[in-house]
Each structure stands twice: as structure tokens, then as C-alpha cells.
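User: Okay, second chain of the day. Same drill as before: sequence in, C-alpha cells out.
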Amino acid sequence: MREFHGVFPYLVSPIGADGHVLEAELRRLIDHLVAAGVHGLTPLGSTGEFAYLDWTQRRRIVEIVVEQTAGRVPVVAGVAATTVAEATRQAREFAAIGADGILAILEAYFPIHDDGVIAYFSAIADATELPVVLYTNPNFQRSDLSLPAIDTLSRHPRIGYIKDASTNTGRLLSILNRTDGRMKIFAASAHIPATVMLIGGAGWMAGPACAIPRESVRLYELCRAQKWDAALALQRSLWRVNELFAAHSLAACIKGALQQQGFKVGAPLPPQAPLSPEGHHAVARALALAAEAYAAAPSAA
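Assistant: Same drill. C-alpha cells below.
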């Protein structure tokens, strides 16, 4: 199974007013992120507004990301559905397109018991030969991945990763202890990446890395080199970007940040609200602070 580690930005989904993917801007963003040193790309995560996209849009976004990345870094595509049949269909299509891995998301209208949750994620892992990253976000999902379910799923030969957005860092350590090396942890924007790296994380898959990629990569490198004083100094400044999500929505913040950097990625998809003038001002301040912290941070070498 291919090893994933490092910084995987959750890509925004640039969609025009007519519903078509803004292909040129997405390709330009991909090249920018790869040049910044990211270790992989994740289309159709939460920042990618997957819940607001139809299948034609989802499929085209993954096609563009795979084409433009051209093997330079792995592409882990988001699969999200309410049924096993639809989830496995998506997984097979993304594998055929050339994705390197699957980010598996369970959408549920009614709560699902552990047996159903395990069956859903197992079916995705059985549908292709690709490695699978489990994604759980209890704040938004009707059915969370419990520790017993994670333990069971960690024994599947293609399920070796989990991105947990619970905001509970102790839960991450419980997962590491419970799975005994079978499951690697990726931090979400709800967690402090340096803290997750300290307890044994593999990296982070998160929206902020889409807007501050070089800063995120430097933070990862400092953590890997165990230069914790420098890493925490940089982390304190970068956390300002994460704090904005408490006042402004995720997609609005990241798309607003990218617009300020010259990427015409469009507004969040309705009925989500675009970033307010106050939000744009706050994002600009956070980006400036991140750039200053990056300039002051030492190399990990």
C-alpha cells in the first residue's frame, strides 16, 4: 500500500456562475501548491464543498486534478455518499481516472449503527486496490466512527489512515493506542498540526494548507526534524488562519484567501454566504502574519 505523509491541502472547488468547473484556475492552483512543496492533494474534501456539487462536477474536478498533477504528488480523492452502492461506484470511477487513494466520507440522514458504518467503509476499501483514508467529522455527521469501529476497520489491508476532525486531540491518541500501529493519523483544521505530529501523526489534510502551503510545509519539516521550539513559534502564527473558521465558514475563508492571492476561484456555492468585508480584512491580516512567521522560521535542515 502506498505510504501517505505530510501536507495534503484540501483543494477548493472553483465553480463558475454557470455551474462549470473553472478549469484554468484549478490547474494554476495545483501547480502553485506542488511548487510550494506539498506532499499530496485532496480534491472533494470539506473545503472542496463536496456536499454542494453534483456528480458531473465532482468527476470533472478529480479528472483535472489527476491530469494536472501528472504523478508529481499523490491525489487522494473524496468519496461521499449515503449508500454503499453509490460510494463504491464513485471509488471505482476515481480509481479508473487515476487517483492514488480514496478519502472515504459517510453521509447519513439517519444515524447508522457501528455494523452499518463498518460495512460502508469496508465496501469502499473492497471496491478498488487503492489505499483508503477514513474521514470522520462528528460536528457535521449523523454517524461518527467509534473507537471499536476504527479498530475493526484498521484491520482491513487497504485502510491504514484516518483524518479525525473531532477537535478532541485525546481521541487521536486513543486511536493510535487502540490500533497499535495499524492506523496513521492525519490532523484536520480542527486540530493543532504540531501537536498531532508530536504524538505521532503522519501529517495533515486540511483547508488552510491550500492558502498557506509553503508555511504548512515548513511547519511539517520542522516537526519531522523535531525542532519543536521553532515549530511551535511558527504554529502559533499559522493558527490565526484556523481561528477564522469560528467566525467565518471554511469554504468562504479559503476561497477568500485564494482570491486575495490572485486565484479567481469564485465564491462559496449557494446557499453558503461569501466572505464578508470584515472577513476579508481578517483573512488578509492572518495571511500577512503567516508570511512574516515563515520568513522568520529557520530551515529544518
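DSSP finds twelve helices and seven strands in the chain.

User: Thanks, on to the next one.
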